[in-house]
Amino acid sequence: MFSQLDPSAPPSKYWLMLESRAIGEFGLCCAVAPLLLQFAPSGDGHPVLVLPGFIASDLSTKPLRMFLRNRGYQAHGWSLGTNLGPREGVEDNMRKRLESLAERYGQKVSVIGWSLGGIFARELARQAPELVRSVITLGSPFAGEPHANHGWKCYEKLSGRKADDWPNRDLMKQPPPVPATAIYTRTDGVVNWQGCLEQMSATSENIEVESSHCGLAHHPAVMFAIADRLAQAEGQWRPFDHESGLRRFVYRDPNRGDRFVNA
């Protein structure tokens, strides 16, 4: 049964229960790893900072960082423990981490953020565009309503902040001043997918995959898309090609008209 998803509401409990798919998606990633490593493009070795989602740590992004290192990148975690939201010192320490990596490698840093980590990634790019080469978000509800997810109560309890207490919320919805890619899934069981979409511009885009929210950082289709985006030469950004060859069977057109999900 298909029904339209209210953009101000969290996903249905049906999709929340199906977040257990993430286990199978990790198994799929392990199974297709040889093909992924053979066909995913390699990069130029620039540094990449990967930020974990809410209530997650660098352990959750280790498979992605290992993959990126195999592709030739200098991939690093945020080194700030478990992500419990924008608690005191967290945003300043992320900025210091970004500055340290840029100085260490003498290059701009690409920043990847999963869920809440993606919101942090976009704001880092807004604060220090001279240090950020590109931003990639994975199921990050930067453009959504504060309560259009299943984690807002936990967020308020652990972060000590209200879900709608984030400065410049309208600005958050605007694309950052660097190339930005939002990877999302319409079958997200944690956050409302409609709040994970970038506004289209000359340097921003959306890529849709079929995945759970909890499996986004280790889903093969996501990993390939990330490798494709990072492999672009600096200053030569182009939108993702989701139609060539086998890609059209893996990536759906994010601009298609329907906004319906299986509820």
Automatic annotation (TrEMBL):
Keywords: Hydrolase. It comes from the Bacteria. One of its GO terms (molecular function) is hydrolase activity. The keyword Hydrolase applies. Residues 107-147 form the AB hydrolase-1 domain. Coiled coil: none annotated. This is Alpha/beta hydrolase. It comes from Caballeronia grimmiae.
